[in-house]
């Protein structure tokens, strides 16, 4: 009996051990089978705005093709939540146009967002917005749990059908409050006026009392804050809150009212004409590359009435304006217009195009602003089929800064076919390399966008904006001696006025001053006294006849001290001396001092003036800078001769 009991006990123990071992193996197998579920990254479309997604931090996957201006982005580095998430990712450099995964984190709203051009996207400026976000590479942090499905501020996802007008969204619960269902607007075909009368139930008092608690919620829930509710009267006269903040912003109902129109970059205020090559030899593909280059330049420039304005002239056999300076006042409209340009065909007559631009394009009727430098950028495939030198000289003398972009220029074997050797240097404003860009291939033209924009916006170096008529300080030194007489003195003043009328007068252009002399000298008005043409002409009329002796040498010294000592460093200094007789004092040393100080002196003698003395006073060569008039009444005939001499001397300066 005892033996049997022992045997049973052994069997029980054996069974227990078998079960125990089996269980252990079973647990091991179960442990091996339990795996962490794979994280599914939510995918979004290019047009999804960060403000539509409630989650404070999330990972998403963007599709390819989001580098498109229709997906608006606001800000730089920190973006307003009204921005396209994927567009912001490309602008920041985290993604390219092929798409990919990104991490998005909501941050506080900013008082202002500055637009910029980066990675093919022009972001816009915005005064302020309630919520912001930043974008980083799609590598999730270990200590952060990211949602595998996004929560949108409307009940429907962006891909939901448009047949539903409204749905209820359950307000996140807060301890001590009762959750209130809130009806959201889902704007489909409703107009702004219809949507403004769509009302939302007002939060309950209990919800209002917890405002301080709600403000501490993650940024994705800021749409529940009390200060983002606004009230207005509905059709029945009852106050009802409008949709705002995290729902559908009022601004979304009219995109135009939200997006501020740029006034342009004030640091690049230029009037710009592009002369594009539309010749048959360029082909359709290269012509499209040329148009894309123009669009990229327009985007980078930030076109606007307070900044750069841009027009386009296409040339083939003959030139034709595609649109002028005043046609499009922002980069977006300009890019749309560029896309619509069709190729003209024909030869590549760039010289004819430059003449057309000089005579027709930069006019007030076409939007030329006068105070802004005129810039013409000529794009040529290979080389022009006509000559550009004479047309370009006329353009430079008219104050146009010519830039030349030569693409796939002539090889050594092809140079024999070039109509005008070294055509680029004969065309550009200066031959120092600043105005010329040589591009080896059409497919690398896009690399020229930034260098070109930087140069055309460097207004201090746009040397051809300075012409013979807008870049001088002109001091008239007028003989008021007794031999002149009252009547003739008025004739001299009329001559001075007629000369002054020919110049562009302002505090930044040509300035006028005047000295009258006999034995003594008198400053009638200085360079800083008047800065409009009408004021200058009135000041000349008011000059009174003095009468006395003739000390011309002393008058030159006086003008150097009282007038030209206050001349601006960047101005050409011109002295125009008018006398009717030989000086009582020596003029040689004062004249040498004037020449040494860089004052270009023109001597005009009337009646009894000494020719040898005029030649001493005048700048070398004397034949170009001294004039003799037999009678006072003939002075007016010499106005064009003096102006021509001034401009010839100015335009003879070296272009290097």
Automatic annotation (TrEMBL):
Entry keywords, A to Z: Disulfide bond, Extracellular matrix, Glycoprotein, Neurogenesis, Repeat, Secreted, Signal
Region of interest (Disordered), residue spans: 145-221
One Pfam entry name: LCCL
Location within or outside the cell: Secreted, Extracellular space, Extracellular matrix
Signal peptide: 1-26
Keyword check for Repeat: yes
GO biological process terms on file: nervous system development
CDD domains: vWA_collagen
Domain (VWFA): residue spans on this chain: 271-456, 473-642
Limits of the LCCL domain: 40-133
InterPro entries to which the protein is assigned, alphabetical: ECM_Assembly_Org, LCCL, LCCL_sf, VWF_A, vWFA_dom_sf
Stretches with biased composition (Polar residues): 148-160, 175-216
Assembly notes: Binds dermatan sulfate and chondroitin sulfate.
Biological role: Promotes matrix assembly and cell adhesiveness. Plays a role in spinal cord formation by regulating the proliferation and differentiation of neural stem cells.
Record-linked PANTHER family: COLLAGEN ALPHA, VITRIN
Protein name, entry field: Vitrin
